Amino acid sequence: MDLAALYKEWASRLLGYMMSITRDRHLAEDALQNIFVKLATSRVDVTNHAVYLFRAARNEALSLSRRKGPRPLSLTDILAPEESAGSQVDPAALTSALNRLPEEQSEVVILHIVEGLSFKEIAEITGCSLDTAASRYRYALEKLKEFLRQWT
Amino acid sequence: MDLEKSFRALRWRNSAEPLERRVLSAARQARVEQRLWRWTWRGLAASVVLAVALNASVRSGPNPSSARKIDAPSGPAFEPAGMREFRDRARLAFSPPITPRKLPEVLR
Fold it and tell me: pTM here?
């Protein structure tokens, strides 16, 4: 397993995702290191890197964030729109709206829209069924539309 | 309003690049330590097996009865009662018959 190549391809995405769970940069950094240490010492033959890595990231982030109390960061500190994207919506409004969602719904939105994972992959990562992942996403979009309508 | 398109423009603010050296160094060190432990345990296991095999070969050695002598006391002092008398009678019973010697011609 080429650790350096894996790191270059996945580390920033995993770090962002773990920060969205822990809401603490230092915890997310520790979790990232733990993941790569486990990758280096395991003999697992990974077929789907995305599912394996995001599931490991989720488990590690949840494990570390259970031990610590305060969560200083909000999603506004973790996510930002690409400058060239030309979004129709105010960027601050986007992340604020996302921040107001229940965690399991914001997680599905992040994994599906930001990371581009399928609902099947999201179900494997979060340990829920395919239908649950899809319905969380649906409810999340409805709430986001409502929040953004209030913003404008 | 295309909500999904708007959200698709979101990117993670933080890069993992500054952490690369530290994370990969920790990962490689963990891998080396794991291999070291694995070989240490294999060496220990091999030495235990060798010790057991050597001990077994010493015990079974060129004079197997010596192990029995060590384990069980033997000799006249440890014979069951009456065994000596039995042995003497058996010796007499199974010894060859005494044939009278022929007298020399001179004395006949």
Answer: 0.71
